[in-house]
Amino acid sequence: MSDCYGGRVQLPDVDGREDDDECFVPLSPVLLDASGVPINPVPALEFRTTGTEGVEVGENVNKPGREQQRLLVKGTGKVVGGKWETNGNFSTGIHGQEDGGKLGKKRRPVTVDTSKAKTSLEALKISIRQLKWKEIPTGRRAPCDIYWNGVSFLDNENITSGQVNKFPGMLEISRKINLSRAVRIMQELFPVEYDFYPRSWILPDEYQQFSTQLRMAKESDAALNPTFIVKPDGGSQGEGIYLIRDPAELRPAVAGAPARQAVVQEYIHKPLLVDKLKFDIRLYVLLKSLEPLEIYIAKEGLTRFCTEPYKEPSQKNLGHVFMHLTNYSLNVHSGNFVHSESQSTGSKRTLSSVLQRLAAKGVDVKRVWSDIIGLVIKTVVAVVPQLKVYYHGVIPPGKPGPACFQILGFDILLMKNLKPVLLEVNANPSMRIDHEQEVAPGVFECLPSPVDEEVKVGVIRDTLRLVDPGLKRTSSCQRRSAGADEAAAAAAGDGQVRKHPDGVPSPCLKQVFPKYSRQFNSLRLVERIAALFVRFLGVKGNMRLGPTAFRTFIRNCKLSGSNFTMASVDILYIDIARRWSGAPPDSREAGMSLQAFVEAFLYLAARRFKSQTPREQAASLLDLCEAQLESPTAGPEECRSLSCGRSASRGVPGAPKPRAHIQHLGPAPPSSAPLPRRASSQDCRRAKPRSRETHAEN
Ligand code: ADP
Description:
By secondary structure, this protein is of the alpha+beta class. The chain contains 18 helices and 22 strands. Strands 12, 13, 14, 15, 16, 18, 19 and 22 form an eight-stranded antiparallel sheet that branches. Strands 5-4-6-7-17 form a five-stranded parallel sheet, covered by helices on one side. A four-stranded antiparallel sheet has the order 8-11-9-10, sandwiched between helices. Helix 10 runs antiparallel to helix 11 (484-491) and helix 14 packs across helix 15 (566-579). The radius of gyration is 25 Å and the shape is globular. Adenosine-5'-diphosphate is lined by residues 198, 229, 231, 235-239, 241, 265-268, 280, 325-327, 411, 413, 423-424, 698.
């Protein structure tokens, strides 16, 4: 069996089978679909095709002694050549601009522009060397296959092709306030599924709610004395974070400065301890594509340890950062910090070494993994709607451009009862593989960090292998003939990067979506609301809906009537748009943001379907709107708005199928909507900066 979590843990598949090769098996409770019907567990994807179709791309067909392999790409009939190299890497020989269809002919290596890689550079260089790809260190005029940006999508100017390792807007979306808002919407709709995120309030806007709710809770239970953690929005590395027990302890804004926005959050006071220390998990997650949604999780991650033994919060110890905050950047300054010399000791350890210790104590590690996978998928599902809106805003439709992918850093805390809790998502996780150490009093040196190198080089190398342009080409061929989910799975072969022969590191990235899509697709309701929003946004790259577009939405979906007049619609628009006017994205723009639109949508749903739960209300209204928009009797205004937008429901499970002509790849019939553009990472295009992107790395 594989040795993902310390070599001892054998995971049963969802249907109870043992799967030697499978370490990621969600065991989440069965979810209900939009109509409340339980969704049965889904068997794992088949890794190997049978019969005459040959093997899928991604399968190791190499047998010792066979130099050249032929891979028949399932669904396309296309045969590609490739061979395993002495370093264990598989080369397809189809990199480069034109492969000309000739088998076995050596093509130019994949080129990676590393000129903007910043602190990822060292790990990136090692990965490129291992893959025998070509580094373009100073950038160049001729296009590269991959651009590796250190901070954001905007680092490299004027890219019109290839792939960029950042999605537009991801930095904004992963800020603490935006993440809290995105998860909160999901908590409203799916309270049980989204209970992995601590209760949060946004300051200063929700100060009153925070203090009122706390006062009422204390009144009803005099023994209650909860602790809260205050985190500045956009902060990183523990900067500005402090603990409080009373709203009066909130630090006032510095005189003259505008009140800094922050999240105040329930403090998890019973974390799981190892060696009496609090620790958190840094998990690397690859968002490979937005549509179809493709998510990979690194099997190996890091754990960051506090440097002072943990005690539950008391008024006395609230200020002990080395006890309560696990940030490396803080604890490295504690006299107790231990630079790890092995993977299982010190203040930064591999995740597998910690899980191995837990397994030895009888902890059900596979359950922990399963919960973590669920947490990751649900979090991505919560942020994808906003990401799609950014995509639409930054990359207007119709023009070619780079595809996008992104490595995210998930910070996760395990509670004493082993339940994982999401702390935050870092759009720009540190990929440094060295650390500063005081080698003599006052003398600091940068020394290699073997633990960081082990984990981070693996993540970058496997990410590169998954976005290999040779594979991309295959996948786009397949997408024409396969459904989105099947194509996504096929694009990565068996859902993993290619296996290596013995003696080289095994792949660390594992596909979890669409692999487990059927368990989680029913959560993608807000994505469907976002699809409606984008449909009515227009073509100018707006990210906010104007009043006329909102009216058009209401009218085309036939949501107005005698008890909800167009005058009420206007009042609703003004009320909600005004309340959200200061909120990102891009608060300089007037109009209704996605979050405001979602609020309006949920309000309309609650009005119309009074007796249902919020989630049923939203699903019912979505069905109604989508049906209206698909109706062949849609009026001229609908055609106008459709011609400005893209398919509302395309790619979002549960939404009705688009009308037949929308699926045409050629031009649409004149009377119908033009072909909606897929908001795919495949055609992500560089555009004028629209948003402030911070430069935090964490
Ligand atoms: P930053 O981006 O500044 O690192 P985080 O949200 O990751 O901010 O918080 C910093 C640290 O504070 C975490 O690594 C964790 O140790 C601790 N922490 C954050 N939120 C909570 C919470 N809700 N309960 C307990 N500890 C928390």
